[in-house]
Amino acid sequence: MASFSAIGEVSHVFECLSLDNLSPFELLPRDLLWIILDYVPESILSLRPTSQICKSRVDAYALSCRDSPLVKLLEISESYHVPPRTIYVVMHVDKKISGLFELRLRLKKTVFDVVAKIERFQMPLNPHWTYRLCFHYAYDEYRVLDYVKDCVGKRIEETKIALGDEPLVTACTLVLGQVHCPKLAVNGYLTDITKNHLLKIIAEQNVDHLELNISGKTIPDTVEMLLQLPSLVYSIAICWIYPHDMSSVQTWLDSAKDINWAETIAEVFSRKVDKLKINGLSSPVRLNHRDSIMLGERLPMLGKRIWLEAPIRASPVDYENNEHAIQIKAIPRERMRGHYADTSSYKLSIKHSTRMHETFDAFKKLPLGRS
Fold first, then answer.
1. In this predicted model, what pLDDT tens digit does every residue of 240-275 receive, in sequence order?
2. Is 32 exposed, middle or buried, given 0-12, 13-18 or 19+ CB atoms closer than 10 A?
3. Selection from 257, 184, 234, 174 nearest residue 214 by Cα
4. H/E run at residue 318
5. Which residues contact 94 (CB under 8 A, 6 or more apart)?
């Protein structure tokens, strides 16, 4: 008898959900409704409580892996200052889709309440909501980071990660998973472990634009990795960070004496890369006039639209070769952070005529999620 009663209840539900009782909006095919929600994601929290059908479809939409990114900027960093040692996973989300993102957080159920661990706040001058998860090595499980990976979607517009020891690298790998990260910024110290993990992340996340703020035991170590990147990305900006121990700075700089920087740059452009920026003031890279002639002859003939900026010790020049402008010019004083102009404060610029006004501002300057 119980089974017949259950069948009767189900029949009653279907009667209530008959086509005659549905609104035109509820009659829309699911895929069409999802397309509408793609255009007005801010409406989902208003639509969801209107009926059981709308609730079901909105929830399915929130759980689906849509192609449009949910997270504008993802940051993974670490703090040693206040015990216990903590990893910060910070997600910047456009206010327009914050309701969708929060619904996704709630619906991605886990055996433990991760949502309660996520703070939401707004940083000054930031039009986005900032969501921060604090992961503590001492007592949190790595499943927490798996949960974050499931919530951020298929694609993140911009990603910034810090390199560190094994736990931090593992955290970065877990959170990013198979997410597409077209723009990646990396800060930290290169070791054999972090180099291998970084190359793996760049390959698996399909990174197109890479920004490196890094240091290593020696400069050749960094250059060795740099030469593995051109097959993976289209553009690279690199800034070398001096060692924290000032007594070792000269040894660190001396390790670059035997590097042929012009040949290194030419090799970078011989592969996938068509855009390279080397930060001048803190860089061990020092090209000379002969290097500028070689690069000015070779790079424009590679059959691609080159964009290069690199520090150089040479006098100003300005000429063209195969639709590329080759220039050596002083770094503007206001951008030199107190350094006075001298022969080392010049940059070599080789740019295709269609890219003369292009910059390397791949990353929007959002405030950091951790104060």
1. 777 666 666 666 677 777 788 899 899 999 989 999
2. exposed
3. 184
4. strand 317-321
5. 72, 127, 128, 129
